Amino acid sequence: MTPGLGVWLYAVTSSRDGVADLNELTGVAGEPVRTVVSDDLTAVVGSVPLEVFGEQPLRGHLEDLDWLAATARTHDAVVSTVVRRGPALPLRLATVFSDDDRVRELLDERRAEFGAALALVSGRTEWGVKAYGDRAALTAAVAEARAANEGGDRAALTAAVAEARAANEGGATGAGTAYLARRRAQLSAQETVERDAAARAAEIHTRLVRHAAAGRLQALTDPALSGRRDWMVLNGTYLVDDDRIDDFTATVTMLGSEFPGIRLELTGPWPPYSFAGVEREPA
């Protein structure tokens, strides 16, 4: 390895399947993408300047959102190309090793784990499902369901729904006892909606997993990072058999209509980042 260069990892695949010519691919530093082979495993890598992609410079660059977005797009473009050519495991962004020998050590040390993960993702792709809640609609749906279960009075239900909507929308406030009563009702409604939304999100995830080879719950996206003010209640990733994609997407559509007040958003297909299964700190 030329002094001043490190090795950026993009993906790991099976040597048995072979990796098609990668000469046309360029990586995050504009470098030609190449391979490092260790027996039955192949790492797709690129040689990158450490003055830009070394540990210390990377810390600064990763705080530059424009730089980070451009680098992530390039990394994902390489990964997506490799995945389209056969089963492959994407490596997380900014996995940099000192030289090819360190990459081979990774392949040797984690051979069994890489092999199991490759078997898991073979013939499958990753899909994302996000669920967003409408507080007023959820309050109305919960109230209606409870009234139906309890045989409640329809007039009382209508009044309760109207009051809940007014509370969620920050309706007019009065003074004294009336205001305090409305405030208590508002806080109670908010607490109930949070709990019920979580229960619905859990049910949706459970049912989606039944139609997938694997599923994982991801952290809910911070609105400050996503730029969206929607109330996210579910952020799930699912590994779906390629021949069952129609069944999975139909299930998402059905669940979207089955749970009033919750909107489902399906994205994909993606490289199986959530199911690569092997992580290690670079060296």
From TrEMBL:
Keyword tRNA processing: no
Keywords per UniProt: Gas vesicle
Main subcellular localisation: other
Keyword Nucleus: no
Annotated compartments: Gas vesicle
Signal peptide: none
Family, per entry: Belongs to the gas vesicle GvpF/GvpL family.
Protein name: Gas vesicle protein
Species: Nocardia rhizosphaerihabitans
